[in-house]
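From: lab user (bench 3)
To: helpdesk
Subject: output format question, protein + zinc ion

Hello, I'm new to running complex predictions and I'm not sure whether the block I got back is the full result or only part of it. Here's what I submitted:
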Amino acid sequence: HQTVYQKDYAAPDYLVETVELSFDLDPDLTRVVSRLKIRSNHDRAGGVRPLVLDGEELTLVSLKLDGVELEPYRYQAGEGTLTVNDPPESFVLEVTTEISPKANTALSGLYASGPMLCTQCEAEGFRRITYFTDRPDVMAVYTVTLRADKSSCPVLLANGNLVEKGDLPDGRHFATWHDPFKKPSYLFAVVAGDLAHIPGSFTTMSGRQVNLEIYVEEKNRGKCDHALRSLIEAMRWDEEQFGREYDLDTYMVVAVDDFNMGAMENKGLNVFNSRYVLASPETATDDDYQAIEEVIGHEYFHNWTGNRITCRDWFQLSLKEGLTIFRDQEFSADMQSRPVKRIADVRLLRSSQFPEDAGPLAHPVRPDSYVEINNFYSMTVYHKGGEVIRMLQTLLGREAFRAGMDLYFERHDGQAVRVDEFVQAMADAGKRDLSQFMRWYNQSGTPVLTVSDDFEPASGVYTLTVTQSCPPTPGQPEKEPFHIPLAMGLLDRQGRELPLQLEGEKSPGATTRVLELRQETQSFRFTGVGSKPVPSLLRNFSAPVKLVYPYSEDDLTLLMTSDSDPFVRWEAGQVQAVQLIMGLVREIQAERAPAVPETFIRSFATLLTDKRQDRAFLAEALTLPTESYLAEQMEVIDPAAIREARELVRTTVGERLREELVAAREACAPKSPYHPDDGLAGCRRLKNLCLSYLMAPGSREAVGMAMEQFRGADNMTDSLGALATLAGCDCPERDEALEAFYRKWRDDRGVIDKWFSLQATSRLPQTLDRVLELLEHPDFDIRNPNRVRSLVGAFSQANQVRFHDAEGRGYRFLGDQILRLNGINPQIAARMLTPFSRWRRFDAGRQELMKKELERILAEPDLARDVYELAAKSL
Ligand code: HT7
Ligand code: ZN
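Helpdesk reply: Thanks, we reran it on our side. This is the complete output you should expect:
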């Protein structure tokens, strides 16, 4: 398997101006004719270079140059390529190939999903449809004709505008589409099938009417309202916030059940994993509704950040993904509670990106090399990439950041560019030198900020000293200092915010300011400070770093109750909880009797009964750090002790605060029928959180409450909230509820995914046995990525204590499934491998067992590039 290096980038030797594709669609055998208008892009005086096209899993039927069939000596069909020797300066190449959509289990290229045919071309799937220069800097105008059986495939869709359609002999029909915008091949899409069509419309800021069309299977027609509403909100938001208007007459969204990722932003024809389109109150939770809004927004925002301006090469992936993640985060923040959204984003970053950055698969936001690009659709490229954009906004301020975005669109519309062009636009608009900032794109690892302070009462000077460091990561033993925005404030002992005045400044300024760190160690001297303040650091999580400051219990309580920044208030509580649980872990490991201190219970009670707090924020504040986040805090991870310690806190809270929890839960009881937009999602979250605390000790009374909620719920949030607690409880009602749930929802794939996940994430000791049984369940389908994620993924990534079974049974299970998936869907197989990449963080016994599985995987003779790369780098 070959490595591709960023430093080897060379402009394409040939450009493609237009692409005319014609498909004779059939699930068993589809014929594709491609007519490419090609022009040389190199200096031919130095010799004529061959035209090398990419192609995989294709049967070549015919090859014509300017209308003449090519003699065999003029071309070679090699491993993954088709080479045409000595082509003219400009010419038309006509390639006919055959493919088998039904046999395509990798879900890349043209494939069958249930009754329909659809495509997935990012990153390198177009080469599985026809021979092409399948790289994002080759942009062309496409015209596509689809022919298919009219009764099984009445709907024929491709990018752009429909220009013609009509009937053909033998019960077939055709449709021709033209996309006037130049695009890279990864944005190409077609869909064919028997689909219901849900129409909508949007009038753009310049008064143009855009047809919105959602396509789903007929049975799902009633589940599209929320997706359509979200799309309209997203279109409006991008106009208001970024001045970006939609550019085609039609915007189509198609939901498919078999999809490797969340969704795909193909020009004018988004293809979505059905889980990010379909929702009804009975089948979707508040979180599902939220995720749909976010993903619909994300794909829509790509139209400008990704499609109009795309990536020059795949090393620049974060140019579109980091920026679009930032845009979808901001969109969601504006649609719901901004602080709660920020907290959720930070939780995700810390629980998934920080571990990636600290392990053998760490890579920069802009990687230097890859074996398989699909492995770099990572938390780092997406979510750390989003944080990098956010830091630019923090450093420049909102106004200059917006000017930078405008400049970027003005300069590069229609181009395939690098991250450098984006940052340059920001530097120019903000009149800033961002050369040091570029290190965020080139250096991997999570920086650590170690902060100390000193107060001189006589002079009233308070000094904050910040030292930054970044641990070694693969290929990068030493790091240069980053340019880091550190948003901060100071509180006096009464919790009042101090106006901030740095030495040398004429007068005190705002109570929050952004300190810019550029050196390894920097000191900031604040003047006019009356008494030693408590520093409020990293407000709004202004940089993706770890912060070390020796806060006392009292400092944390002050920040928790008084800081003006909601992130810092939440964080202070999390730090306290981490300290508490880690203390209990040490007690458990030393075989002493651990106990939850009274102070913790009291401050938990104070929060729980605080009527002034927003319910959604309260639910976040009362949620304990996850087991995986706690694991990150340990030198050698002890999953069993973490589980025991965290459970002890939950059980103690459940017992000691029974009355308060019952009251808080009742105060959140619904007073009207459920509606996803009723503004009560925070209330439902808090209510379900209270139930989970009440259920922790497993009392009969609590089981009764859970069953009552389960039976009486008019919505999936409450039904699932109750069922999740029951799935974790060793009581007779557990099986009864799971069985009833299955019987009720057996025909709904999305809900059955939840049913699999709930059982896979149950902390009960028999979970692995149940997971093995579920592998044999008639509804389990190893070819369906959502089902694999809901069973194999949920168990191995969200059930630490059971997956890390000391005997290695969990590891064996995962190794078996990865090897099975390797031959079916390499992308999904590789995604399942991440838990093994953390093997060095565990005790010697577990290390040995996990290593053995990685070695077993690497010994597989036909290992896909995707799996090979991650397994080899993990060892
Ligand atoms: N840009 C899309 C990426 C994507 C993808 C990548 C590899 C293999 C399958 C895929 N499906 C979608 C998704 C996005 O970021 O919007
Ligand atoms: Zn994206």
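A quick orientation on your result: Residues 298, 302, 321, 324 surround zinc ion (ligand 2) (CB under 6 Å). Let us know if anything else is unclear.
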